[in-house]
Amino acid sequence: MEKIVKISQEKIDAAYAEATGAVKQVLDRLFKDTRPVTERIKTFEDALAELGEDHPLVLEYRYCQNAAADTKVYIKLKIITAALNEGWEPSFKLGKENRYYPWVSRFSESTCKGLPELRQCRFIARRSDIGVIVNGGVGVLGAFSYDSGVNTSVGSKLLFKSKELAEYAVEQFLDLYIKYSMGTDYELVR
């Protein structure tokens, strides 16, 4: 005969907060949230909780609180990427898998207005009148003028296992991607 036990979420959270190592793994198996990862991770704090306090990236983040702003942004993106990938890491074996990198580039407002197919164009403030284009693929963009110049390259710690996750990450955490790719003094205007 199967016995049903009711435990409040508050008690589960309290037990999880006190647990370490193997006990956390058991609690995860018993009470893991089965919703899709894109429903569970909406904020940076959600990504921290998803990985848990013992995860090496979370420990790195806690340790780097006095680091430069750009370093903290990069570590935050590594945490978000790891949480959204749910344990997947790129293998870098030729021909074995596709990998996706959220690519954020900037263009002038007039360029974005002149290309209506760029429906994902966002505008950010501070340094100039600059727009942002969001893609879930891999790319490199180079230009020579201040208003439209940016170079992006693929960082292996920020790769995703699917195009959908890359697109979700950059849409959900666009402000961090802008700060990572263009500097921490940029601000997103939504």
What's the layout of helices and strands?
Blueprint: H1 9-18, H2 21-31, H3 37-40, H4 44-51, H5 56-63, H6 69-85, E1 103-108, H7 109-114, E2 122-125, E3 130-135, H8 163-172, H9 174-182, E4 187-189
Antiparallel strand pairs: 1-3, 2-3, 2-4
Helix pairs in contact: 4-6, 5-6, 6-9, 8-9
What does this structure look like?
This protein is α+β, with helices and mostly antiparallel strands and 190 residues long. It has two domains: 77 residues, no CATH class; 87 residues, no CATH class. The chain is 44% helix and 10% strand. The protein contains nine helices and four strands. The chain has a four-stranded antiparallel β-sheet. Helix 4 packs across helix 6 and helix 5 runs antiparallel to helix 6. The termini are far apart.
Quick recap:
With 190 residues, the protein is of the alpha+beta class. Helices cover 44% and strands 10% of the residues.
Class from secondary-structure proportions: alpha+beta
Q: Specify the overall morphology.
A: globular
**Gap from first CA to last CA:** 55 Å
Name the average pLDDT. Answer: 74
Helix-strand topology string: HHHHHHEHEEHHE
Q: Estimate the strand proportion.
A: 5-15%
Count of discrete alpha- or pi-helical segments spanning 4 or more residues:
9
Number of strands: 4
Number of domains: 2
Could you list the spans in which at least 5 consecutive residues all have pLDDT below 50?
118-154
Q: Report the radius of gyration as a whole number of Å.
A: 19 Å
